[in-house]
Amino acid sequence: SGMALRLSQCFFAAASSLAMCSAFGFSNYSAYFYMNLVLIVQLLWSLYLACQDIFSMRNNRDLHAPDILLFFVIIDWAMAILMFSGFCASASVTIFFMKDMNFCAEYSRLDCSQFTLSVTLAFITWLLQAASSFSGFWLLISFF
């Protein structure tokens, strides 16, 4: 189940990042740029942990030692916080563009549908990251 969570995080982070990169001018807005940066870091972190899982399964190595798990849990929680702040800021900007200022209707080059898709996929990525963070935390406290 941990492997499925990590691979799902990779998939949704990549999909969200690709959706954001395909939107014209996303890098002009700091919230979108920040979210995309965090998504790329999330993708790399999840890919690293998925590779660790594969390596440990192939070599019959246990990754559930408390010291290794503590490192993973701390980084997982930091990533969850960064993901949460990134998608919340981007969702706020998207709502501001679409509803408050009606920029999407006025500026046809502003690709609000891509922004919305990317933020939605980032939210799913955060949900998966939060699930990983909580499961790792509960596994860690089971050692004590």
From TrEMBL:
Keywords: Cell membrane, Membrane, Transmembrane, Transmembrane helix. The chain crosses the membrane at residues 33-56, 68-97, 117-141. InterPro entries: CASP_dom (IPR006702), CASPL-5 (IPR045009). The keyword Phosphoprotein does not apply. Residues 2-128 form the Casparian strip membrane protein domain. GO terms for cellular component: plasma membrane. It is a multi-pass membrane protein. Homodimer and heterodimers. This is CASP-like protein. It comes from Aegilops tauschii subsp. strangulata (Goatgrass).
